[in-house]
Design a protein that fits this description.
Layout (H helix, E strand, L loop, with lengths): L6 E6 L3 H12 L4 E7 L2 H11 L3 E5 L7 H11 L4 E6 L4 H9 L4 E4 L3 H13 L4 E2 L1 H17 L10 H11 L4 H8 L3 H15 L4 H10 L6
Parallel strand pairs: 1-2, 1-3, 3-4, 4-5, 5-6
Length: 219
Amino acid sequence: MPGKAKTRILLADDHALVRRGVRLILDSEPDLTVVAEASDGAEAIGMACEERPDLAILDIAMPRLTGLQTARELSRLQPDLRILILTMYDNEQYLFEALKAGAVGYVLKSVADRDLVEACRAAMRDEPFLYPGAINTLIRSYLNHAREGGTLPAKAITDREEEILKLVAEGHTSKEIASILVISVKTVERHRANLLQKLGLKDRLELTRYAIRVGLIEP
C-alpha cells in the first residue's frame, strides 16, 4: 500500500516446500513481506530477536520447540509481536492452547491460500482470526461449559511433560532428553512414568502415536 510500511513477517515451518508456498502467497501482497524463515521453534525465537518482525507465523508441529511452546516464549520476550498459528490440525484442544499461548489467529494449511492474507491483516489490526469451523468449536465449547457452570478444561499434561513427550516421540533417549532440557535422567524417567500413567498408555510406541494424534509431531 503506497506510503505505508509493509508488515514484516517471520515464517517458521520445518518443511521448506510449505515455507516456499506460504512465502509466495505473502510476498505477492503489496502490504506484506517475509523478512525471515526458520525451520524449527528455537531458530524462530533467535530470528525474532534478530529481525524484530511485526508478525510471526508458526507451524504447530516443529522440531525442538513446537509452535505453541515458541508462541509462549515469543509472547514473553516480545509482547507486541502478533502471532498466527498455521497448522494442518483442526484440533479443539490445540485451538484453545494456541489462544492461551498468545496467538491472535489459527489458520489451517488446507485453506491457507484463501485465509492467510486475511488473517495477517486482521492480526495487524489487533483483531482475532479463526477459520469458520474453529468459531463453531469455540461457541459450542462456551455453551457446553456455560450449561455445566464450569471453566475451560485444564490441559491433560503439564508444559514440561509436553516437552518430554515430544522428545520421546522424536526418538530421543532419556539421556539425550536430560541433556537437551538440562535436567537429570532420573527426572526424565519420572516425567515419562507420569505421562504413561496420566494418558493410560503402555510404552514409547503408544506415546508416539498419542503425540502424532494431538499434533506434537507429524507422522
